[in-house]
Design brief:
Arc Repressor Mutant, subunit A; Beta-Lactamase; Enolase-like, domain 1; 5-stranded antiparallel sheet; 10 strands
Length: about 350
């Protein structure tokens, strides 16, 4: 903001943004003078509004209407927020209790986080499954379907489970398949695809055939940029005034179906521990020009992680969205850390294999 703008003008801008976020109606100078007790006249407030409009912070839907914030105003508002915005202690305890009482696996943690986030911010929540930069084999299982076909179940260290049918040239009993799986697990557990390729291990043709199938699964996982996220709360967002026109509602539905925008957002990875806010026309994606995204990463730095965020109108409650996204990312990171400590326990790996 220009230094020429006095502190009181800056205060007027913040109040306009907060009022519009709360009411979704253009803000009039008389309303500010009457309800905010700024100690200045409506005429002075109008002068401030005109100055802010000239500098690209505000606009008027109609000549005689009140004022509406633009992306530049929301950006200034977000930048003015203190970095320690957070949920109340009671809300934090309630979230902890929900996760503590639920006996869940990693996929259900993600779904639960999305549901809680959507309810707390009254917008669309998105959470991606955790993904490692390079897939690591946790363990595999082989289940006999008949003498020549088995179901290969590959569990990766980031808790993804992949399945594939494997056909054999020679008949295999379940005992033989179990011994084969145990041998591969002992030799290759926690290795990446590249590390497995360099590993010197004496394999029979049948064992080699299984390992090749595992490598193909891992290659496909490594090539995957982002898994389809869990979306929750789309109805909550579409119930807001901005999405009453049918065309805008249809545009949001199409956005959820298309993952290109999500890839572009995730490419803007926030600084460690930070929350990124992309507002309206700051986005390179046309589909996001009327929307904002608040997101961050969760997980174990340089090892495995995912994205958690909020999608909503530019008129979203940014302090609450930032605080909720930040806190739930911390919860998911702690849960994932505990899960990974178990997955690297040699005794646990041997038992699972």
């Amino acid at each position: 903001m220009s230094r020429a703008l006095a502190a009181r003008q800056e205060l007027v801008l913040r109040i306009i943004v907060r009022e519009y976020i709360a009411r979704a109606m253009p803000v009039a100078s008389e309303t500010l003078a009457r309800t905010c007790q700024l100690g200045i006249s409506p005429a002075t407030i109008r002068n401030y509004m005109a100055r802010l409009e000239e500098e690209g912070y505000l606009t008027r839907p109609h000549t005689s209407a009140g004022i509406v914030p633009l992306s530049k105003a929301y950006r200034h508002y977000v930048e003015s927020l203190t970095r320690d915005v957070q949920l109340t202690a009671g809300e934090q305890r309630a979230i902890q209790r929900v996760f503590h009482e639920a006996d869940l696996n990693s996929e259900e943690w993600i779904r639960l986080a999305a549901v809680l986030l959507a309810r707390l911010v009254q917008n669309t929540a998105l959470v991606t499954m955790p993904k490692a930069p390079n897939a690591r084999l946790k363990h595999l299982q082989l289940v006999s379907l008949n003498d020549y076909v088995a179901l290969l179940v590959v569990v990766l260290r980031d808790m993804k489970v992949r399945q594939q049918l494997v056909h054999f040239a020679q008949p295999q009993t379940q005992d033989e398949l179990t011994k084969l799986a145990n041998k591969v697990n002992v030799a290759l557990s926690l290795l990446t695809r590249k590390e497995i390729g360099h590993k010197k291990i004496d394999l029979t043709p049948t064992e080699g055939h299984v390992v090749e199938a595992v490598l193909a699964i891992m290659a496909e996982e490594d090539a995957r940029q982002v898994d389809r996220p869990y979306f929750e709360g789309l109805r909550l967002m579409l119930n807001q005034p901005e999405f009453t026109p049918g065309e805008r509602m249809l545009g949001v539905m199409e956005l959820v179906e298309n993952m290109d925008w999500l890839r572009s957002i995730i490419a803007r990875e926030p600084k460690e521990g930070g929350v990124e806010v992309v507002i309206g026309d700051e986005s390179e994606q046309d589909a996001l020009r009327d929307l904002s995204v608040v997101f961050t990463r969760y997980g174990i730095p340089d090892d495995v992680g995912g994205t958690i965020g909020v999608l909503g109108p530019t008129r979203m409650d940014y302090p609450r969205s930032i605080a909720t996204v930040r806190y739930l990312s911390r919860i998911l990171s702690n849960l994932l850390q505990g899960l990974y400590m178990q997955s690297t326990d040699p005794a646990a790996i041997t038992k699972e294999g």
